[in-house]
Structure formats: C-alpha cells, structure tokens
UniProtKB/TrEMBL annotation:
Source taxon at top rank: Bacteria
UniProt main location, coarse: membrane
Pfam family, one: MFS_1
InterPro entries documented for this protein: MFS, MFS_trans_sf
Species assigned in the record: Metabacillus fastidiosus
Keywords: Cell membrane, Membrane, Transmembrane, Transmembrane helix, Transport
Record-given protein name: MFS transporter
Length: 421
C-alpha cells in the first residue's frame, strides 16, 4: 500500500494513470453499446458483432511498423496527446454516421480510430517507464490491472445502460468526452525532454521510409537476440487469441445457449463478476509478485485460466458459468502483472517504443485472426463451446511452454547482468 501511495504522489504518474483510465473507459462504453446495438438490429447475423471487434484489432496490422519507431523518435507526450484529440474527432464523425444510419462509414471510422489508438499505447507505456524506478514497475503493472478491472466492471454495465437510456449515439458522445479528458490530462504532465525524446530531437520529416524500416528492423533484432524477451513476447500470440475470443464468445454463449431471453441483463451481471474478479485478482497478483518468482506466478495462472475456460463451456447453468468466469478473471491479473512488471525491467528505455510496437501488432494479429476465424465459421461450422476449447487449450499450451523455457532464460539473464556489473 505504501508503494502505491508513493506512486500516486508522483503527479505525472497520477495524470498518466487517470488518462489511461478515462481513455479505456470511454472506448469500452462506446464499443459495448455498439455491439449490443448490432446484436439487436442484426440478431440473425452475429458476424456483425465480431466485425466490430475486428475493426479495432486489424488497424494495428496496418501501422505496426510505424508505431514503435514514432514512440522512440518523436515526442512521446505529444503522440499520446494527439492520439486522444484525433480519436475525439473520429468519435464525433461516428456519431454523425450512426445518426444517418451509414453502417459502412461506422466500420471505416472504427478502423481509423483503432489505427490511431495503436500509436497511443507504445508512447504512453514508454512515458510510464521513464518516470518510474525499476522497483515500481510491478506495482504500476498491478495498478494498470486495476484500471482494466474497473473499466471491465463499470464500462460494460455503463455501456449497456447508456445504450438503453440515451441510445447508441449518446454512448458514442461519451466516448468523445472521455478522449478529451485523457488528452487534457496528458497535456498537463510536466515530463523532461530526456524521457519524452530519449533518442534526441527528430521531426516527422526526418522519418523517411528507409529510416523507419531500419529502426523497425532494429527493434525486431533487439527482441530476437534477447532470449528471455523473445520468449515473453511470443506468448502474446496466445493472449491475442484470448482477447479475441473473450470479446465475443461470452456474449454469444449467453445469447445463444444459456439465457437467450435476457442476455443483456445477465451480461451486466457477468461484467460485474468479471470486473470484480479482475479487481480482487489485481490485489492478489501485486502481493504474489513479491513472494513468488514471476515465471512461477505466470505459468500457474495460465494453467488455472485455461482449465477454467474449458470447464465454463461444459456447464449448462448461467450461475455455474459465472463461477468459472470469476476464476478466469482472478488469474488474468497474475498473467498481466508478471509480464507487465518483467518487460520494463529487461528492456532498454531507448528501445521501449519499438518493443511495444512489435508486441501490440503481434497480439492484435492473433486477435484479428481469431475474430476472422469466428466470423467465418461460427455458428455454421463451429459451436459456441468449441470457441472456449480453443481459447482454453491455447492458454494451457503456452503455460507448458513458459514452464519449460522461462526459468532457464531468467537464470541466464541474471547471470549475464552480474557479469556486466
């Protein structure tokens, strides 16, 4: 608790923390409202809801070679702030597109907004790395997990409530307002030039095609030659599958199997259960990160989450399903705290943007493939249960992979560090 209080005494961190929360909360409200709007309007075409999620993950693949280079070469604070401003404008255009009922334009604007948000995360995480000490990384990762749990806990419920109360257009306006608040918070931060521009001053004109490709290749080479980092990063393929599956399959199993008549109301309860589980799990993970080795906590959490995901597909009672979902929610923070607290420790701050620029596209690529897979084969070929088997099985497999390689590479990393010192 004392470490958390000391973090919040850092005004820059507090503002970045709140900016992350408001930005994510707004995005969740609008996206949740849009998904339920599409499920209501196109009830016999569940692929529309999947496409909505796809329009947030596919854009990352269109700009993946730029985001990390921009975060390392340009002003990180300026990038994060401008991403929020641009997302505000795109949300307002989306409001107009929904008002005139032009769905193709809605999906195009979602795609553009996803592309812009891709530049936000590497810049934001690089700023956070720069203003914290190495000992504070796991605690900050735990706090990030609490942010995630809060917007899961309240975002989905508020999104559905806003959809009922003020319609899809009103929910999108809340999106726009949240981006404005986030941008103002980031603008008010007073961060040194060394953190904002760790590789010196550059302008957008300096980023020629060859420079961008050279820097991106350098980021790939850095990851490839760092075996511990490479092992951690490779697991993000499965985390993308998890994110892609969870974003739609929980709604699908409620609507098409467990409780078709009142799935919207149950979705709110499920969101509360899931968010509460992640919130409690965040405190547990922060505590365990100081008592267990990170690779032990990580593999244990993967096994439990995978098993609970598979088990949740076998139950026929919505309350038993919620128990299984709660178990999954408890373990997810352990995964994120372990990786989120580990990567900043082993990555050179000058390379953080490019590392994040490689991690996010890798995860989004697998997330996009998962969503495309679901859109193409569900429900014609695949059952809703098989989606849970796919996601749960992948978690168990990566758990075995991490169990075999991480202890060895962690020991090698520590011995190399001692030799350098």
């Amino acid at each position: 608790m004392r470490t958390i209080l000391s973090l919040f005494q850092n005004r820059n961190y507090l503002k970045l923390f709140l900016a992350s929360y408001t930005s994510q909360m707004g995005g969740t409200i609008g996206l949740t409202a849009l998904m339920f709007y599409l499920l209501d309007r196109f009830s016999q075409q569940p692929a529309y809801a999947t496409i909505t999620e796809l329009m947030l993950s596919l854009p990352t693949l269109a700009v993946f070679f730029l985001v990390g280079v921009f975060a390392d070469r340009l002003d990180r604070q300026l990038i994060a702030k401008n991403c929020d401003w641009i997302c505000t404008v795109l949300s307002l255009f989306m409001f107009l597109a929904l008002f005139i009922d032009w769905m193709l334009l809605v999906f195009m604007l979602l795609f553009l907004r996803g592309a812009v948000k891709s530049f936000f995360y590497p810049a934001h995480s690089s700023l956070v790395q720069g203003i914290l000490t190495e000992k504070e990384y796991p605690t900050a990762s735990g706090l990030n997990q609490m942010v995630a749990s809060l917007f899961i806990l309240f975002g989905s419920g508020i999104g559905i409530f806003c959809y009922w109360a003020i319609g899809i257009e009103g929910a999108i306006l809340i999106d726009a307002g949240s981006f404005i608040i986030s941008g103002l918070l980031i603008k008010s931060c007073k961060i040194s030039e060394e953190i904002r521009l760790p590789n010196g001053k550059h302008s957008i004109k300096d980023l020629k095609v060859l420079v961008v490709m050279k820097d991106f290749k350098k980021g790939l080479s850095y990851i490839w030659n760092h075996r511990l980092l490479l092992s951690l990063v490779s697991g993000f393929v499965v985390f993308g599958i998890l994110n892609g599956g969870l974003s739609v399959m929980q709604v699908f199993i409620l609507k098409y199997k467990l409780t078709p008549d009142n799935y919207e109301e149950i979705s709110i309860i499920l969101g509360i259960v899931f968010g509460s589980g992640v919130l409690v799990g965040s405190f547990i993970a922060s505590s365990l990160s100081n008592k267990l080795k990170l690779h032990t906590m990580l593999t244990l959490a993967l096994f439990i989450a995978g098993g609970a995901t598979i088990l949740s597909s076998l139950v026929n009672n919505v309350w038993l399903y919620m128990i299984c979902t709660g178990i999954v929610a408890l373990t997810l923070p352990m995964i994120n705290v372990a990786i989120g607290g580990w990567i900043p420790k082993i990555v050179d701050p000058k390379m953080m943007g490019r590392v994040q620029g490689c991690v996010n596209p890798l995860m989004m690529f697998s997330q996009s493939l998962t969503l495309l897979f679901i859109a193409a084969f569900y429900p014609v070929i695949l059952s809703v249960e098989s989606l849970f088997w796919l996601v749960g099985g992948c978690l168990v497999v990566v758990g075995f992979f991490y169990m075999m390689v991480l202890p060895k590479f962690d020991a090698l990393e520590k011995s190399t560090s001692l030799m350098v010192d």
